[in-house]
Specification:
The protein is built from 14 helices and six strands. It is α/β, with parallel strands linked by helices. The protein has one domain: Alpha/Beta hydrolase fold, catalytic domain (Rossmann fold). Strands 2-1-3-4-5-6 form a six-stranded parallel sheet, sandwiched between helices. Helix 6 links the parallel strand 1 and strand 2. The longest helix is centred in the N-terminal third of the chain and has 14 residues.
Length: 324
């Protein structure tokens, strides 16, 4: 069993070195989905994953924040904002996925942070959950606020950021950290459409829970979908995407292997619903975590790394520009 991130990186040193030396796709912007799918077919999905990991870190803003976190020695955040924690899908039904954010809340509270979970619906529509987020922000307009979103919670907040009164709503929001965020939706919706019996079963299960299959369709990744485009991101809002870059042998959560295999023909993915190549176009800064899957529960202790990320993200930046 792997006992640390350093051990994981050491075990994959040759693979990562090969990716660093690869002349093709020299910048992240050139690592689009079709190109990464072709690279995965020709060179293997492990190499394509390592290539994306390296190209993410070649972006100046991403690399600078990565090194800042790596060198961090600050134990707590001075004068921390109120943390609004937006959980992921089915956080009430499946706490074992970490979607409820309980582990993250414990880390943040140990760092002298106030944490409040935003009471979004467990599998509510994007519009409904965006309204709940807006109401929560209205109640906290006197606080400095930072958001941490998990998985589908990132999609919910993205829709809230596009509300007509978003400029006023978000005027006191300093930071948004998106962990394994489905902010662009997921190609798993299209995969599910090709599985009629499975789709029927999912629909029946949701109905029994009082939830709607239409919410699944809202997460579709295709032109015209609710998540196709990004709303304007306020200049003062520091946006950081924390993404996992796993090889198949790194998948630790019981559900991750199924998600990984379903998307593998399309290229590198995090085992939880999105293609890593889609993250080349995200606004903000990307922090890649090698050797963890979508659920951020690797077989090494991720707590210390998350603590350093949170401390540096929530502390006022000296001169850190967001990558685009």
């Amino acid at each position: 069993m792997t006992c640390s991130l350093e051990d994981t990186l050491a075990g994959d040193r040759d693979l990562l070195a090969r990716a660093v030396a690869w002349a093709d796709c020299p910048t992240l912007g050139e690592c689009a989905g079709p190109r990464m799918a072709r690279t995965a077919r020709e060179q293997g999905i492990e190499f394509a994953t390592a290539l994306l990991y390296d190209r993410v870190l070649r972006c100046a803003g991403n690399g600078a924040f990565f090194q800042q976190v790596k060198a961090s020695r600050r134990p707590v955040v001075n004068d921390p904002p109120l943390i609004g924690l937006i959980p992921g899908a089915f956080y009430l039904e499946h706490k074992n996925t970490g979607a409820d954010g309980a582990q993250l809340a414990a880390v943040l509270q140990s760092m002298n942070c106030r944490v409040e979970r935003v009471p979004v619906e467990s599998f509510g529509s994007l519009g409904r959950n965006a309204t709940i987020i807006a109401d929560w922000l209205s109640r906290h307009r006197r606080d400095r606020v930072a958001f941490i979103t998990l998985s589908k919670g990132s999609a919910d907040l993205k829709i809230a950021l596009g509300l007509p009164n978003a400029a006023e709503l978000f005027r006191n929001v300093d930071v948004w950290m998106s962990l394994s965020g489905l902010s662009e939706g997921t190609p798993l919706v299209a995969w599910l459409r090709r599985q009629p019996w499975r789709k029927l079963g999912v629909g029946l299960l949701l109905r029994l829970r009082g939830q709607r299959y239409s919410v699944v369709e809202e997460l579709r990744q295709e032109p015209g979908g609710p998540l196709t485009t990004w709303p304007a991101v306020p200049a003062r809002l520091r946006l950081i995407h924390i993404l996992s870059f796993p090889l198949r042998r790194h998948l630790a959560h019981p559900w991750a292997a199924r998600g990984f295999d379903r998307l593998a023909p399309l290229g590198p993915n995090d085992g939880g619903g999105f293609l890593l190549s889609d993250k080349a176009k995200l606004p903000g800064t990307v922090f890649p975590i090698w050797g963890a899957d979508h659920y951020l529960q690797p077989d090494w202790d991720v707590t210390a790394l998350l603590r350093r990320i949170f401390v540096e993200a929530l502390s006022p930046p000296a001169d850190l520009r967001q990558a685009t």
